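To make this tangible, this section ends with a sequence with its structure tokens:
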Amino acid sequence: MFDNILSSLLVIVIVLDIVGAIAYFALGALRKQKRDLAPAPAPVPAQPPSLWQRIFSRRQPRALAATEGDFAQLHRVLYGFQDGLT
């Protein structure tokens, strides 16, 4: 009798696991469709720097344009760490 209860419980858990996996992939596909159909956000217009930003501009880091070589070096460094971990 105890074996029947445990096997019935195991069947219920397996069925719930399969239903959950199906729901996970179905909801993931719906989420991707929703993201593809969503309109692109409107670009934020650039505002000129304020007086305080012009006065204290040395304290702000300046953005530099990244080149293709910079990304290649970053790629080598990151994959170098991956190779070092294995």
Observations:
- The chain is about 70% helix and 0% strand.
- The helical segments are 2-37, 51-55, 68-85.
